[in-house]
Inverse folding.
């Protein structure tokens, strides 16, 4: 089968620091596995809380908060090995919230960029307490923009964007900065109300213009008893090469 006739499933979920071995983490990982993804981006998770097969790369351990050594803000998992791994991205990016690499898939090599864009109050009332609301978020977007412009490979940007699309509660200028950062070369395929959760995500998947989405769906963040697994729901997308 030619590459143009193939597809790949990619997923992302903020695990809200669910601990390895917990019912919450086991349920989320099982729901991710049910979609048979070739690549997963996990944010706010533990290095021991990823699928026990495949290959993992992570962001740096330091993001300015005191935390256990095995916590990471962002991790990328793939069925295939990684190459061209980058934990820094851009000197202006707040640390620990970025990781990228190239991995082989059924539609050819993809550059994956995993992000955990700071929320509005990052280092405002906790952590270093030296920021204004949205300051680190905007700084991150400023550093991310040049990385998205400088690409030579089909690329997927995914992870925790900490904004809904279209805009809901973020200030208009903050939302417009996100839109400008993505530019015309990336489509956020997870925008709008996603089924079956029927809500807007803040965990997103954005694809470069040489890719297209065949299906996008949400993964419920409540268990069978109605208990919350995470304050985020997961997102899964099946993508293929644009014709």
């Amino acid at each position: 089968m030619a590459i143009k006739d193939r597809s790949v499933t990619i997923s992302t979920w903020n695990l809200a620091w669910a601990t390895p071995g917990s019912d919450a983490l086991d349920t989320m990982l099982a729901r991710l596995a049910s979609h048979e993804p070739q690549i997963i981006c996990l944010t706010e998770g533990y290095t021991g809380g990823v699928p026990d097969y495949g290959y993992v790369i992570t962001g740096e351990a330091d993001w300015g908060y005191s935390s256990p050594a095995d916590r990471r803000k962002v991790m990328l998992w793939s069925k295939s090995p990684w190459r061209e791994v980058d934990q820094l991205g851009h000197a202006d990016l707040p640390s620990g919230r970025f990781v990228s690499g190239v991995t082989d898939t059924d539609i050819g090599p993809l550059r994956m960029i995993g992000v955990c864009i700071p929320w509005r109050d990052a280092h405002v009332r906790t952590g270093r307490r030296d920021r204004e609301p949205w300051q680190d978020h905007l700084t991150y977007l400023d550093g991310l923009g040049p990385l998205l412009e400088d690409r030579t490979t089909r690329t997927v940007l995914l992870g925790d964007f900490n904004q809904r699309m279209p805009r809901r509660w973020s200030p208009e200028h903050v939302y417009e900065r996100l839109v400008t950062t993505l530019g015309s070369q990336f489509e956020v395929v997870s925008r709008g109300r996603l089924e079956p959760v029927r809500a807007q995500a803040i965990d997103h998947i954005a694809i470069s213009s040489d890719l297209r989405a065949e299906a996008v769906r949400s993964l419920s963040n409540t268990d069978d008893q109605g208990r919350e697994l995470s304050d985020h729901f997961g997102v899964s997308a099946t993508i293929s090469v644009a014709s």
